[in-house]
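thought: fold this chain, then report.
action: predict
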Amino acid sequence: MSVQERRAVSARRESLLGDEPGAFAVARFVRVTPMKARRVVDLVRGMGIDDALATLKFAPQAAAATVYKVVDSAAANAEGTEHLSRADLVVVKAFVDEGPTLKRHRPRAQGRATRIDKRTSHITVVVGPKVEVAPPAKKADAKKAEAKQDDAKSGTAKKATAKKAPAKKATATKAEKKETR
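observation:
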């Protein structure tokens, strides 16, 4: 199956990437709580693949090992199916969804039992090529934009002082009333 055919078939790929080049990997039913996994995923979102893997390798959280595998798998998918260079890949999207919860019980005092929830996660990582940022505008255009911003700021400052002046007069009249009594 060619890349074009697979793109036409996969609704999941369409929802994650659209027409953009890239690949994704999903780890489902991972026995780590979604809250703890999200902490780790937030570390690598937007990073290059090599930086993300280095960060995850030395992260102290237990979920880092699983997220490492998913990021590495997504990069391998991009290399193998989309023929993208690993050096140019970035973690475009990374998110954690909640999986099914295993419900267990633990005996407690006086014949009671409490429920223990063992949560699971679905970890999804999407990688794509780096997006090139447009070169900045010319210096003359940038100076004009700054001048407009400065004019706007000074105009609001004048309006603010005009509003404050009546408030001072009101306080002065209160002080005068106190003195007359």
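thought: worth noting. DSSP finds six helices and five strands in the chain.
final: tokens above.
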